[in-house]
Amino acid sequence: MAGSAAGTPAPAAGVPSSSPISIAISPSSADVDAGLSQQFTANATGNSNTGVQWLVNNVEDGDSSVGKISSGGLYQAPLCQPPAQVTVSVQSMADASKSASAVVTITPTAASTGLQCTGHIPHSNHVVLVIEENHKYADVYPNGMPWLVSQGNTYGFTTNYHADASGSLIDYLWLSSGSGESAYGCNGSGCSQTVPSDNIFRQLNNAGLSWKVYAEDLPSAGYMGTSSAAYVKRHNPAPWYSDVINSLAEQQKMVPFTEFATDLAANKLPNYSVIVPNLNNDAHNGTLGQADNWLRANVAPLLQHAYFQPGGDGLLIVTFDECDAAAGGFCGGDSERVFTAVIGPNITRGVKSGTSYKHEHTLRTILDSLGIVHYPGASNTATDMLDFFH
Q1: Per-residue pLDDT tens for 214-264?
Q2: Are residues 103 and 144 in the same domain?
Q3: Which helix (H) or strand (E) element contains residue 38?
Q4: Buried b vs exposed e over 104-141: b needs ≥16 C-beta within 10 Å?
Q5: Would you state the torsion angle of the CA atoms of residues 152, 155, 157, 163, taken in this order, to the nearest 10 degrees?
Q6: Is residue 121 located within the same domain as residue 87?
Q7: Are residues 47 and 161 in the same domain?
Q8: Domain span holding position 57
Q9: Strands (DSSP E) along 229-289, which ranges?
């Protein structure tokens, strides 16, 4: 044949044998956050056809699971469930055997593990619940507790949150086992029987997660008495359950509030913390202003910790047990509402939720944020407070 010696294949059209094709990619490696992009450049030489084909993990143009790449080399990392690494490759259009590759390391972000991607509450390793006492929504918002309200305005708060019952301990139990536990003789002051019901403390233990109750004026760790100074047992949800009553080790997880600052400074907060101010600082006996100042002095430092900074996973919920003392009896109708603030880096800033919520919704939200999938009492059918999260 013309132009070729017998038995020798002719070179591909447009590929001079004296100029072998080569291809390079730049950069040769990259780090990119989930959902963001990285520009790559290809340099093809040795042929007049400099066209290239881009691939991600050997998929032409990539796909939604590994990320997509444009004809111009702009790689877009997947936002949701991103792989830890992908390989971006470029091939010569003139000779597909000529290629170059770059490794891309993808870093998950709060968004990539948040509600947008998972459809459920973002995971938290540090959930803190603070329970205040006996004031209705209108007492607190907008002027009754300036620091707490400012946090609610910055992060999120409820406008339609109701207590479950009248009587302090009953609502603390609703926040812990999704029931007022009347079957065990529980009322606002105490329980006549040990409560064997499933509860958040049991589920935390079953899941291998840590918890503590930080109670102001608790005289010593594990104290099971009715009162001491301005501490009252009826404002502590833990000591009524069989899990705690029957275990000295569990009782030691109820500690004086002074340990909170120590644990926070040492980066040793448990997975779940319940903060119980004393009667003078929870707005039961003292004023709302006094309670607000106590939060500003003792809880505000929590928000400066890495748990609550961008990229952290902390969740703080401040709520009121109920509002009977503020109205001379159980609050009925619209005045039954209590103020609840939901705070943390995974909260959509400025959320003002009008969804109807009660204490069992808070319990469900706390359980799901901790990755617990067994739900005590009414939390089993309660919905998460999803509208607060991004």
Answers
A1: 999 999 999 999 999 999 999 999 999 999 999 999 999 999 999 999 999
A2: no
A3: strand 37-39
A4: bebebbbbbbbbebeeebbebbbbbbbbbbbbbbbbbb
A5: -90
A6: no
A7: no
A8: 22-109
A9: 231-232, 254-256, 272-276
